[in-house]
């Protein structure tokens, strides 16, 4: 599938690997793909994320992603659903961190040395790449570009999509920023 990626989309994927390496993550996640997209310049996707104000609010996006990591990857909807049945996630996080240290639920492993520099993609990150292909095919685009990756990040349920939505970057908003009103005629690829 990688041969169908544009130069910018390839740079985004390799940039995600770099983000994972820099943070000492064991694998490449959807979050790394988003952060790499926010690094890109001069593309249709970078124009869209700038138009939506994400580049100006990058620190806020990163903070929201960090908070979700602290919650063990639970989305806000997950947290609210648990609160609805009397489970206070904030209290649980505080207790776990009190016993095991800050970031215990985030899966932070510190600066552990790895023999292999290879970082596999998580199932969620693979889903984003697959969804970007489906979106490109649904739009009848020949190649997968950064714009398809950002749309996939908003379309796949999870923490990254929640954080993007909290910052005004829903699928519909990104699609409008990318294609104007003419983009709404295309259905989301399943």
Automatic annotation (TrEMBL):
<dbReference type="InterPro" id="IPR036628">
    <property type="entry name" value="Clp_N_dom_sf"/>
</dbReference>
<dbReference type="InterPro" id="IPR004176">
    <property type="entry name" value="Clp_R_N"/>
</dbReference>
<keyword id="KW-0677">Repeat</keyword>
<keyword id="KW-0378">Hydrolase</keyword>
<dbReference type="GO" id="GO:0006508">
    <property type="term" value="P:proteolysis"/>
</dbReference>
<protein>
    <submittedName>
        <fullName>Clp protease N-terminal domain-containing protein</fullName>
    </submittedName>
</protein>
<dbReference type="Pfam" id="PF02861">
    <property type="entry name" value="Clp_N"/>
</dbReference>
<feature type="domain" description="Clp R">
    <location>
        <begin position="2"/>
        <end position="184"/>
    </location>
</feature>
<keyword id="KW-0645">Protease</keyword>
<dbReference type="GO" id="GO:0008233">
    <property type="term" value="F:peptidase activity"/>
</dbReference>
